[in-house]
Amino acid sequence: MKKFRKPRCPFCGNKIGLANTWALKTQGEYLCPKCGGISNIVMDRLIYLFAFLAILVSAVFFAVGFLGFLSLDIWLLLLVLLPFLLFYLISVFLVRLKKPAVRKRRAPPGGRPQNGTRRGPGPGTGPAARRR
């Protein structure tokens, strides 16, 4: 499937290894060692579906064991944990790198500078200073 792939740098197209991707999932930005570009780390939207399915399948296994259709032993515990392990392994292939959004600064209203300084003549140039 096209959705399952290694993340690529959006600037130079350099693929990132699985071990680096595993560590990147918890960070917010990625600095490409090849081109020096900074990109945001986001997870694909498909991750929510896989998380829901992992919870649902584990709940079904637990309910089947709780109702007595399966014996409560170590194998049932492994069956309940298996969907979460698969989710954790699949999530590595759903990491994406995006170029950060560049926000343009808007001009301040009224043409006033943002630091609060006033326009016009500086101090000592008004009528009171000319009378001295």
Structural notes for this entry:
This protein has 132 residues and is of the alpha+beta class. Among the domains are: 6-40, no CATH class; 43-93. Strands 1-2-3 form a 3-stranded antiparallel β-sheet, with no helix packed on it. The protein has helices at residues 18-24, 46-66, 74-90, 127-130; strands at 29-31, 38-43, 95-98. The model has no long low-confidence stretch (mean pLDDT 79). It comes from Caproicibacter fermentans. This is Cxxc_20_cxxc protein. Residues 102-132 are annotated as: Disordered. Residues 108-118 have a biased composition (Low complexity).
Write the topology of this structure.
Blueprint: H1 18-24, E1 29-31, E2 38-43, H2 46-66, H3 74-90, E3 95-98, H4 127-130
Antiparallel strand pairs: 1-2, 2-3
Protein name: Cxxc_20_cxxc protein
Biased composition (Low complexity): 108-118
Region (Disordered): 102-132
What are the low-pLDDT stretches, counting only 5+ consecutive residues below 50? none
Task: Specify the biggest β-sheet.
Answer: 3 strands, antiparallel
Structural class: alpha+beta
Distance between the termini: 83 Å
What is the residue-mean pLDDT, rounded to a whole number? 79
Number of helix segments?
Answer: 4
Question: SSE string, helix = H, strand = E?
Answer: HEEHHEH
Q: What would you call the quaternary organization?
A: single chain
Largest sheet strand order: 1-2-3
What is the radius of gyration?
A: 29 Å
Strand content: 5-15%
Q: Report the principal-axis shape.
A: elongated
The percent range for helix content is 25-40%
Q: How many β-strand runs?
A: 3
